[in-house]
Automatic annotation (TrEMBL):
Extent of the signal sequence: none
Alphabetized SUPFAM superfamilies for the sequence: D-aminoacid aminotransferase-like PLP-dependent enzymes (SSF56752)
Record protein name field: Probable branched-chain-amino-acid aminotransferase
PANTHER family, A to Z: AMINO-ACID AMINOTRANSFERASE, AMINODEOXYCHORISMATE LYASE
Superkingdom assignment: Bacteria
Entry keyword Nuclease: no
Length: 281
């Protein structure tokens, strides 16, 4: 049983109440963020909070009154749950209103925050890598907004599991967009690192941005363009990034083995650099 933060109060999860008329529930109107902490220190919290603010603005959802306190609440929530390494999840919805498409709630936006202990660096995905499938990206065209409207992702991840792999990469008419909850990178035979440029077609991952910085620091050539579906056949390495995956090597895509089916040297180097960054930033 954990302590959560709901609309200004720290409460036991069993005592928390949200209205059945909350627009997050009735219309799927909601924004979220996931920020990780390593040894009590948050990773890229400012970037996550900036993205949260942007998502709210793009959807016309008011910022909650705790706006300037969010990073303090994040820290306190970890402490109250005795967590040093784990994640904080934040969700904001417009709040409760009669069920009408356009009406604006009179009360405050709903702010829910919860914490969970996770040992990211010991996950099988991080240590051993993942197998993935590719599926057409059936989501909407505002994937730059981090919305709680996650049914396509839930379906894609369940479909992956039922096919014996652990995740799904999405593609559109230009190539790979992103993973169901991650950004996708490919290292080609020349050692060039390729990932899709930012646009409304994908989420601007905070981990993606950090990895691009680290890649440039170690002298890698970076191309921001869509990865073609056929490129996995000749790829030297492949990986996904997210706050919770950190960097997870991709071993196979739709059964195609990437190089020798093991995490490649550039992936391992970036994992090490990123771990240094999150431990000592
Ligand atoms: N794309 C999608 C669709 C995601 O859900 C996530 C995870 N939040 C990412 C990319 C990676 O973003 P981040 O590195 O900020 O966790």
């Amino acid at each position: 049983m954990s302590i959560i933060f709901l609309n200004g109060h720290y409460v036991h999860e069993k005592d928390a109440r949200i209205s059945p008329f909350d627009r997050g529930f009735t219309f799927g109107e909601g924004i979220y963020e996931v920020c990780i902490a390593i040894n009590g220190k948050f990773v890229d919290a400012l970037e996550h909070l900036a993205r949260l603010e942007r998502s709210l603005k793009e959807c016309g959802i008011d910022t909650p009154p705790e706006r300037d306190e969010l990073s303090n609440i994040m820290s306190e929530l970890l402490q109250k749950n005795d967590i040093t390494t784990g994640l904080v999840y934040l969700q904001i919805t417009p709040g409760a209103s009669p069920r009408n498409f356009t009406i604006r709630p009179e009360g405050r936006p709903t702010l829910l925050m919860l914490a969970q202990g996770v040992d990211f660096k010991r996950s099988p995905a991080f240590l051993d890598g993942i197998h993935v499938q590719m599926r057409q990206d059936i989501r909407w065209l505002r994937r730059d907004i981090k919305t709680t409207m996650l049914m396509p992702q839930v379906m894609a991840k369940r479909d992956a599991l039922s096919n014996g792999v652990s995740d799904t990469l999405y593609y559109d008419e230009y190539g790979i967009t992103e993973g169901a909850s991650s950004n996708v990178f490919l290292v080609d035979a020349n050692g060039t690192l390729i990932t899709r440029a930012l646009s409304n077609h994908l989420l601007a991952g905070c981990t993606r941005a950090r990895i691009l910085d680290l890649a440039q620091n170690i002298g890698l050539t970076v191309e921001d363009r869509p990865i073609q579906l056929t490129e996995f056949v000749t790829a030297a390495e492949c990986f996904v990034t997210s706050a919770t995956y950190l960097i997870a090597p991709i071993l196979t895509v739709d059964g195609v083995i990437i190089k020798d089916g093991k995490a490649g040297p550039i992936t391992r180097l970036l994992q090490n650099k990123y771990c240094d960054y999150i431990e000592y930033n």
